[in-house]
Specification:
Layout: E1 2-7, H1 11-22, E2 27-33, H2 36-46, E3 50-54, H3 62-66, E4 76-81, H4 85-93, E5 98-100, H5 105-117, E6 135-140, E7 143-148, E8 152-158, E9 162-167, E10 174-176, H6 180-186, E11 190-193, E12 196-198, E13 203-208, E14 214-218, E15 223-226, H7 228-234
Length: 236
Amino acid sequence: MIRTIVVDDEPNVREDLENKISADGAFEIVGSCANALEAMREINSKYPDVVFLDIKMPKISGIEMLAMLDEQSMPRIVFVTAYGEHAIEAFEKNAIDFLLKPVKNDRLVVTLERLKRNCRPQSAVSNITPPELYLVPCYRGSKDFAININNIVHIYSSPATGAHVITDREEPEYHTTVTLELLAMRSGLMQCHRQHLVNPNQIRTIEKLENGLGQIITQGGHVIPVSRNHMKKFLK
């Protein structure tokens, strides 16, 4: 079975597409999401083979969401869009799968047959992926949030509890499923330790410790470790 997630902020459109996909016995709908924040959690917990992804959604668009996914484990993406000719030309130029709304049965059949032949990730998707993240999808309990990079003080990871997001507000920590490696590559956050990222705009002082180690004191008084490998770049 080809594990499939459908992401669209219009419930009727989402349900209709799920029903049409499910009619093909090769596909199993394992997730139904109304926005990119829900989709991030579903993708990172259910590991689908394919995601049918709406482009125009509130807070985080479908294309912006792609920048939050690890390219090495990204599922195959099929864009579902009502966009005009200019966007379609970009998809066709990069050989990216797409469906136009309203989705027609004969066009969907072509896409499903193509997916059955090849569910590997599309490397061409990276050609239209934003190079930089401005929002980080987070959650606290069952609620999802889009946190602006500027409001993040630091992020640390724990093998037991995942990635924790600390903001400049007096509020409990958030969690995110975005990896520290991807955040270090696509955001303004800097890696200071294997398990820690820091917002350089939130740094108050950097202190040298013994054995080439160090620590960062943030504007709000948080103490963040700096490893020997990263200490040099903070002392330039």
